[in-house]
Design brief:
- The chain has about 280 residues and is an alpha/beta fold.
- It has two domains: about 150 residues, Rossmann fold; about 120 residues, Rossmann fold (3-Layer(aba) Sandwich), CATH 3.40.50.
- The strands form two sheets. A six-stranded parallel beta sheet has the order 4-3-1-2-9-10, sandwiched between helices.
- Strand 7, helix 9 and strand 8 form a beta-alpha-beta unit.
- Helix 7 packs antiparallel against helix 8.
Length: about 280
Amino acid sequence: MPTSNQPIGVFDSGIGGLSVLQALRILLPNERWVYIADSAYAPYGEKTDAEVQRRAQTLAEHLNTRHHIKALVVACNTATAAAIHSLREASPERVIVGLEPALKPALLSSRTRRIGVMATRGTTQSRKFSNLLDSVKTQADFAVCACDGLAYAIEQSTHAAHLQTAQSQIKALLSRYLETLGPWGQQAGERDTLVLGCTHYVFAHDAIRDVVGDSVQIIHTGDAVAQHTRRRLTDNGLCALTPIDASSPDALSLWTTGELDGLQAAAQRWLNVPAQHCHALKLG
């Protein structure tokens, strides 16, 4: 059975889950973390449920056998929708936390009752998302957009060789998708709240803000996931109690199945984590 001194595993299709990891580390400062960016297999949102399920199982098994994790955070909306149930069935003894687009928190924020949702196609077409949307759709007008290519462009923006091209693609895609979801603002008939239903999109926050304006609330799931993870660990007696040096290699290791320089750049840019915490991973 898992014990409190074991690390917590986190995985995503790429660097997007670092936004969730950031929130987790703030709320759970005594924990040790192992993160996998499955960049070689990205984007998940444009793969079938069966493909994502197989990949999620591979990553979870690696984290279990190689790093002996006590809990798993699936820091990807697409992987949660496709694979969370099978992951829990395979490891019923382990705390496993998933993500879902923050539609319910958006309801608490919106005054115009008009809310936009950006997500991957894998998320928007999933039964899990459909059930979530059905549970709230009578309470507000939700417009949902499957943002093909956006997560991949954000992933590519971490590579110096692709930076300028990727940034141009991000701006073009955001302009198209956000125009489809709009108009944006605080007036009647305008959408005053935007839900980021993919962890990658958090890293395009400033570019999104440039399009929707300062009055629109932008909501993502990192803080809520961190709070839920802490509750689950507490309920199961698995919270680490001994303070740990957050800068030590033992406190945090980041792995990627893709290009190492991309993860290193993302970790430095968004987490202020030095390159020596990042490692390459070959995983069939």
